[in-house]
Amino acid sequence: MQFGDTPQLRVLDFLIGFHFFDYPLTEIARGANVSYNSLKVFFPSWIKSDVVVKTRRVGKSDYFKLNLNNVFIKNLIKLDWALTKGYVLSRPEKEIEA
Questions:
Q1: pLDDT per residue as tens, the chain (98 positions)
Q2: Range of the domain at 34
Q3: CATH number for the domain including 73?
Q4: Can you state the angle between helices 25-32 and 36-48, rounded to 10 degrees?
């Protein structure tokens, strides 16, 4: 199931898939397949809204990850797992093994 194909959704999808790890903006852009300039447009508002949090600084790079204490993010991760589980359970076993 796909909800759209915008830079914001691509970044959310990437960060939800790897929510245990932190990344610099360049790696988030690369992993989400969005331009760095597009990321810089909306990312500051995500920081301000506590969707993402800065975890550390390495050299000149700030590292960020999803704010797992944010209720919205917790529910998004639950939704992601529910959709994944529903998809896997609806597939025949032969399809899953391949």
A1: 456 789 999 999 999 999 899 999 999 999 999 999 999 999 999 999 999 999 999 999 999 999 999 999 999 999 888 888 777 777 776 665 65
A2: 7-92
A3: 1.10.10.10
A4: 120
